Amino acid sequence: MKKNIRGVVLLVLVLSLLLSGCGGGSEVTNGSNESGGSGSVGKADPSTLVVASAADARSIDPHGAGDNTSVNALMPVVETLVVYDENGEIKPHLAESWEEIDSQTWKFKLREGVLFHNGEEMKASDVVYSFKRATSPLGARVQYIMKMVDPDGLEIVDDYTVIVRTTQPFSPFVGYLPYIGAAIISEKAYEEPGADLNPVGTGPFKFVEWKKGDTLSYERFNDYWGEQADYERLVIKAIPEANSRLIELETGSADIAITMTVNDQPKIESNSNLDLHTSPTTIFTMLGFNCSIEPYNNAKFRQAIDWATDAEGIVQAVYRGSAVYTPGPVTPKQKYYDDSEPNDRYDVEKARKLLEESGVDLSKTYTIYVNESQPRIDIATILQSQLSEVGVNIEIKVMETAAYWDFIASGDQEMFISGWGAVGFPEPDNNIYGPLHSNQIPANNNVFYSDPELDAMLDLSREMSDGPEREELVKDIQKHIRENAPYITFDNPINIIGTQKYIKGFVAMPTSHQVYNSVIVE
Prior knowledge:
By secondary structure, the protein is α+β, with helices and mostly antiparallel strands. It folds into 3 domains: about 35-55 and about 205-275 and about 500-520, 3-Layer(aba) Sandwich (D-Maltodextrin-Binding Protein, domain 2); about 60-200, Dipeptide-binding Protein, Domain 1 (Dipeptide-binding Protein, domain 1, Alpha-Beta Complex); about 285-495, Dipeptide-binding Protein, Domain 3 (Dipeptide-binding Protein, domain 3, Roll), CATH 3.10.105. The protein has helices at about 5-20, 70-75, 125-135, 145, 185-190, 240-250, 265-270, 300-310, 310-320, 350-360, 375-390, 400-410, 430-435, 450-465, 470-485, and strands at about 50-55, 80-85, 90, 95-100, 105-110, 155-160, 160-165, 205-210, 215-220, 235-240, 255, 275-280, 285-290, 325, 365-370, 395-400, 415-420, 485-490, 490-500, 505, 520. The strands form 5 sheets. Strands 1, 8, 9, 10, 11, 12, 14 and 19 form an 8-stranded mixed beta sheet that branches. It starts with a helix and ends with a strand.
């Protein structure tokens, strides 16, 4: 079937799901398409910036924050040694320079005169304290990244020079340092009682108050070392319903609304008082197989499902422009993306042939587990229809989100739809090592895939410095993953953000957090 025809068929299927009640939930909005809002002539109180976020923070302790909304709540307050810019390039930040001494050792030269919110100057001792804290039980939420730091290998050379060592060769280490777990905090402040409820960093805003389930409030840090914010106060409001965030934006109650949906996009674009901002992420969605049990330990069965899946058409139908298809875990905007086979492998006849060769019993019914995310439910529903065409019978089980994550880590699942990726990380190691290295079972490798050849490739990639040889290896890893199909990848989503026209200087970042101190409120 031709791509354009099959995409239309899929779109009709999804629309029918929406109309029948299977496509509702938080992804569907009912806001007006009419131009409106109250912000076109400027803001009545330009001293305060209000941001509508999709959820409340789970933690405001930098080393206890592993989810996107907590990161968004913390990054106005805390900072890292290096950052990614909007183009995915690593830039100096709290460290003005760094040197890779060997594949396990880095020397960082810190900026002088950087103050924490408590008035203390940032020193190398604070970096050592922060990294040791992140590798301790207090940093349980950030261990996937920070456990590679050797807490006994941290060395203070002088007040503004620190040496950081890793527990094993890890050449892409600096590429992980923009992560929240590597945030630099004040040793003095965090040794005081209650510090985890009052974050103290070097960022452009000082934390003021957290009303759980409602708002986080900040005030401008007038001694900030970098670019001063144009306004005095920042408020981040937790508004879970996308439709409600849109209404806040349309009425002028919010100046910026993040994590908007594809349904909101045309409404923002058509509103003369609003501006639309988009940016690709580095997240991918996948259909995972539990490769430790039958029949999913049968590579031909997994490959057959891959060839039976019109992944590009699914992405087009479900996301309608708010995501792009990605052929593998290294997404199109990441470093060393393999573009040698950019399309899906949709071929029904080949799928049938592989199923026959697999010897799998097609009289049985197999299960896809999914959480309450409506786009993922829609993906599962379309997959159910597509796989029936090759004789694979599927039932779908939707689980409450917290129970779902516990379940897929248990090893009792069959197939499941999940996602992976730290938003905005160009370093490909993040997307290939955690989900697939056998030493990550079951914490991150929820497909329970154990492949000594792949493990060796992943380990070697971590030891090699960036350059043509590492690029070739990372691309070979992507080919190996695609050929063996421990999972099938679908979409690489796009950040969709709406702002008032009077907001100037905002740049949509590919990261899970946005940068607000460069914003001008007119």
